[in-house]
């Protein structure tokens, strides 16, 4: 028995040693397959050309393009012939490490070490890096220090070694104090290909993103498909199967969505063609996105590559990333502003020096107010790869970037940041281990208010018409001034046919009487979305040709909570008998004195009477049932009279106007609640003749 056990142990050791034996690519080792050896040798020679190019770009902090992919395809042919060569396993590991699925490199690096730990002087560096990716920061730190002290040319890699060591230090701190949040893979959206650039609607119900999953276009010579733009929506709490957006938005080239304008009517994207990447813009026209147009020459230049753009809050600036002009790295953050929206005369782009690091910067997103910027970076206080950072615009300058923290950021690449309006969720994409492959879309869900999330509450305001239609300090806490929002969304339809109506929506600051914003609803669906910040009283006027205008009032006090209002606005055509409520006419309490905030609404009614000179109307005053019926009728009559007096003073003929006080006789809601009584206290006009 003892002798048998000894024999088995010896056999096991022998097998292990045989498996760990490095087999060089020498003709003497393959006498029985000389033809196979020649093909494998040729494949390695061809792959080495692109492998060298890839390394030059990678350590030049530039886009490695397809060099490692081409090298990998060639190396894999030789690997089939001889899988036991340490140097080839090392090179395959490097190629895979520089793809969007770096975890695939682990087994090759480890096998290279097993076969010959001295096969390449950079193997210890990559072994330290994959140890860092596994979150073993102390172990990785020791390995980096060992590499630094033993590698003769370590000085040439000092910038990278220093950054890796800082990442290990940062990682230990951030993972020790994680955010109170879940980060979950949105499995129904992801494939084994890349899913990038999630842009989410304000209510969290719709999303657009890009993916290089298999599509109707032919694959390239490497078997890869181009990036296309997809859309999806939530149904019963789950995202439905994404569909490719039809029309000219997608081509046979890479089409990567960057961001959607806050009203959902414009899209920025970038395309790659003939080695050049530029930023394009598309407009939503009814149910279709227009053929994207390349941006102004000061944004999309002929000399440089540009990508990952976003709109500034007021539409006058575009932020994006561009090739570094002095050729010391890859991409840097820049912005370009314009003097006139009509001329769209974007100026020469300006580099955001205070936000750019010694390494590459990535996708950028500006909040609606323009005071908070999120961007991805390989530098600053990263814990490995790209991390997502936040910076605030204060006193004319962007503050030092702050890492959003773990588990949003990991030692892998973490891209993009699309927060919801209430600050409770956000969407990112990451190639962290455990995904389906490449970059996947993840949902961040914050647990609660115990710790203030490093997050602003503004969101990509993505219209639902999308379907179809140098500071390395780690800060433990970030003070965020929360801006409360009310989101008013819905669609405009014909009151009789329920068909969509193209309408114009004017937003008025009732305190000043000025129209602060004006835009059209979607011509194909009638859908719209508006975001209103707290601290103001807003008048919302909806107008369409051939229809009576509709108004809404939003009085949003400071310190209010986020709110989403979803409403279908039924527009009534100019027909006798139609009645319209004037929600933005205000009187002093218990009196018939018109307040100044009413002027904008009164002037809209005045314009309607001027535009339709045959129109005759009755102004009707209504109250709730509080107080005596006689007092309510008297008050409502007096208020109706005041409106008529105002219109007469502006030149409207008296024979076109009449006034009637109905008191509480015609309620439109229950008088048993404050909200119902508020709705019943109203001024209306009824068309008597046309």
Short structural summary:
The protein is α+β, with helices and mostly antiparallel strands and about 700 residues long.
Structural class estimated from helices and strands: alpha+beta
Portion in beta strands:
25-35%
Q: End-to-end distance, in Å?
A: 111 Å
The percent of residues in helical segments reads 10-25%
Main β sheet profile: 5 strands, antiparallel
| Assembly status | single chain
Mean pLDDT: 88
| Corresponding CATH architecture of the largest domain | 6 Propeller
Nearest-angstrom radius of gyration?
Answer: 32 Å
Low-confidence stretches: 1-18, 456-481
Describe, in plain words, how this protein is organized in 3D.
With 690 residues, the protein is α+β, with helices and mostly antiparallel strands. It has four domains: 19-176, Tetratricopeptide repeat domain (Serine Threonine Protein Phosphatase 5, Tetratricopeptide repeat, Alpha Horseshoe); 181-466, TolB, C-terminal domain (Neuraminidase), CATH 2.120.10.30; 484-573, Immunoglobulin-like (Sandwich), CATH 2.60.40.10; 586-690, OmpA-like domain (60s Ribosomal Protein L30, Chain: A, 2-Layer Sandwich), CATH 3.30.1330.60. The chain is 24% helix and 29% strand. Strands 2, 3, 4, 5 and 6 form a five-stranded antiparallel sheet that branches. Strands 7, 8, 9, 10 and 11 form a five-stranded antiparallel sheet that branches. Helix 3 packs antiparallel against helix 4, helix 4 packs antiparallel against helix 5 and helix 5 (106-115) crosses helix 6.
């Amino acid at each position: 028995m003892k002798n048998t056990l000894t024999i088995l142990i010896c056999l096991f050791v022998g097998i292990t040693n045989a498996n760990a034996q490095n087999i060089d690519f020498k003709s003497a080792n393959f006498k029985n397959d000389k033809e196979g050896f020649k093909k494998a040798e040729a494949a390695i020679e061809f792959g080495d050309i692109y492998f060298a190019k890839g390394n030059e770009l990678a350590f030049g902090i530039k886009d490695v393009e397809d060099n490692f992919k081409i090298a990998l395809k060639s190396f894999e042919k030789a690997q089939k012939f001889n899988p036991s060569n340490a140097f080839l396993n090392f090179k395959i590991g490097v190629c895979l490490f520089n793809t969007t699925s770096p975890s695939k490199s682990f087994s090759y690096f480890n096998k290279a070490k097993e076969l010959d730990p001295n096969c390449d002087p950079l193997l210890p560096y990559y072994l330290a890096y994959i140890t860092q990716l596994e979150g073993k920061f102390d172990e990785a730190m020791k390995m980096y220090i060992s590499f630094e002290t033993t590698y003769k040319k370590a000085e040439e890699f000092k910038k990278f070694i220093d950054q890796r060591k800082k990442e290990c230090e940062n990682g230990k701190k951030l993972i020790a104090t994680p955010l109170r949040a879940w980060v979950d893979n949105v499995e129904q959206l992801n494939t084994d290909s890349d899913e990038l650039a999630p842009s989410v609607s304000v209510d969290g119900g719709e999303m657009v993103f890009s993916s290089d999953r298999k599509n109707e276009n032919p694959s390239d010579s490497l078997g890869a498909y181009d990036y296309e733009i997809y859309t999806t929506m939530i149904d019963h709490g789950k995202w439905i199967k994404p569909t490719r957006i039809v029309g000219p938005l997608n081509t046979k080239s890479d089409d990567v969505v960057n961001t959607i304008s806050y009203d959902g009517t414009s899209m920025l994207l970038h395309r790659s063609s003939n080695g050049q990447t530029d930023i394009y813009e598309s407009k939503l026209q009814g149910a279709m996105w227009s053929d994207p147009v390349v941006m102004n020459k000061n944004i999309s230049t002929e000399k440089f590559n540009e990508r990952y753009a976003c709109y500034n809050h007021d539409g006058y600036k575009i932020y994006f990333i561009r090739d570094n002009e002095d050729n010391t790295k890859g991409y840097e953050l820049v912005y370009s502003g314009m003097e006139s929206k009509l001329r769209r005369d974007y100026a020469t782009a300006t580099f955001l020096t205070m936000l750019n690091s010694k390494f590459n910067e990535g996708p950028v997103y500006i909040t609606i107010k323009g005071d908070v910027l999120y961007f991805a970076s390989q530098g600053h206080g990263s814990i490995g790869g790209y991390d997502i950072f936040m910076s605030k615009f204060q006193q004319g300058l962007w503050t030092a970037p702050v890492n959003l923290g773990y588990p949003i950021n990991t030692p892998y690449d973490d891209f993009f940041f699309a927060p919801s309006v209430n600050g409770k969720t956000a969407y990112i994409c990451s190639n962290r281990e455990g995904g389906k492959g490449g970059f996947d879309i993840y949902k961040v869900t914050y647990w609660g208010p115990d710790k203030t999330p490093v997050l602003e509450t503004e969101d990509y305001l993505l219209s639902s018409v999308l379907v179809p239609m140098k500071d390395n300090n780690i800060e433990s806490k970030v003070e965020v001034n929360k801006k409360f929002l009310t989101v008013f969304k819905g669609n405009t339809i014909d009151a009789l046919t329920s068909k969509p109506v193209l309408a114009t929506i004017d937003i008025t600051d009732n305190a000043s009487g000025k129209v602060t914003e004006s835009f059209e609803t979607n011509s194909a669906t009638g859908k719209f979305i508006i975001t209103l910040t707290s601290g103001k009283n807003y008048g919302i006027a909806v107008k369409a040709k051939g229809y009576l205008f509709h108004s809404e009032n939003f009085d949003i006090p400071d310190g209010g909570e986020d709110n989403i209002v979803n409403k279908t606005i039924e527009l009534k055509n100019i027909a006798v008998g139609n009645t319209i409520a004037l929600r933005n006419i205000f009187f002093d309490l218990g009196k018939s004195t018109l307040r100044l905030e009413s002027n904008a609404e009164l002037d809209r009614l005045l314009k309607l009477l001027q535009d339709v000179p045959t129109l005759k109307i009755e102004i009707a005053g209504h109250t709730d049932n509080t107080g005596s019926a006689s007092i309510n009728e008297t008050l409502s009559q007096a208020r109706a009279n005041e409106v008529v007096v105002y219109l007469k003073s502006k030149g409207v003929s008296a024979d076109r106007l009449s006034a009637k006080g109905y008191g509480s006789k015609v309620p439109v809601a229950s008088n048993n609640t404050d909200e119902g009584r508020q709705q019943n206290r109203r001024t209306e006009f009824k068309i008597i003749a046309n």
